[in-house]
Amino acid sequence: MDPLPPRLHRDVVSFVRRSTRMNESQMKAWERYEKAFVVDVPRGDMSTSIADDARVDWVAAFGREAPLIVEIGSGAGDSLAPMAEGRPDANVVAFEVFEPAVASTLGRLGRHGIGNVRVVVADGAQGLAKLFDDGSVSELWTFFADPWHKKRHHKRRLVGTDFADAVVAKLAPGGLWRLATDWEDYALWMREHLDGFAGLENVHGGWAPRLAERPVTKYERKGLEAGRVVFDLTYRRVDAPQD
């Protein structure tokens, strides 16, 4: 019997599904590149959820075997496309629920001839838990996840102990989890939940230097212009101490 995916509370999703209306250029990009880049997965009860028995053969999806990098919340591909282009020896799987943003991503990938990305239009936390073998992910990117400012909405935040359980299970030994946010309270929340978490090591013992290969996106620039500070973190998958 196949092992169950790591327990992950997703009764409350960590995103808001916005309007799916695409503009003309996005529709053209979707029609032209959807078959090349988008991986369809069986759905659960919600349109962005993933069935418990869903499986993906990533070697077949990419047509090659290579280290797997996963990005959750890839948006319009502003950072995904150049970062994937800079990692030609890796297979990059991106999760995004906002279809117009996915369409923009497909256009970027197609225009720049970036062939090492596949996109799943579904909840990324579920995708990580259900679609990857344990110990198979070399790197995870979660950049500028929704901070869910109101205290009553903090349970919707992507980063937390349940999600960290899944990350530890899916990362290969020595694999890296790279995070960034421009909201200080969310950055401190991340440190509170991840520093000292069994199976994870804060690589820098505190805040990480900015990842040089991560470009400054329009979203990040807007935050910087508003006076916010960007906080980077990097965690490494390590063997948990034995009792």
Explain what this protein looks like in three dimensions.
The protein is of the alpha/beta class. It has a single domain (24-237), classed as Rossmann fold (3-Layer(aba) Sandwich). Helices cover 31% and strands 17% of the residues. It has eight helices and seven strands; from the N terminus they run H-H-E-H-E-H-E-H-E-H-E-H-E-H-E. It has helices at 24-37, 58-62, 80-85, 99-112, 124-131, 161-170, 184-194, 218-225; strands spanning 68-72, 91-95, 117-120, 137-143, 171-181, 200-202, 231-237. The protein has a seven-stranded mixed beta sheet with strand order 3-2-1-4-5-7-6. Helix 1 (24-37) packs across helix 4 (99-112). Residues 1-18 have low confidence and may be disordered.
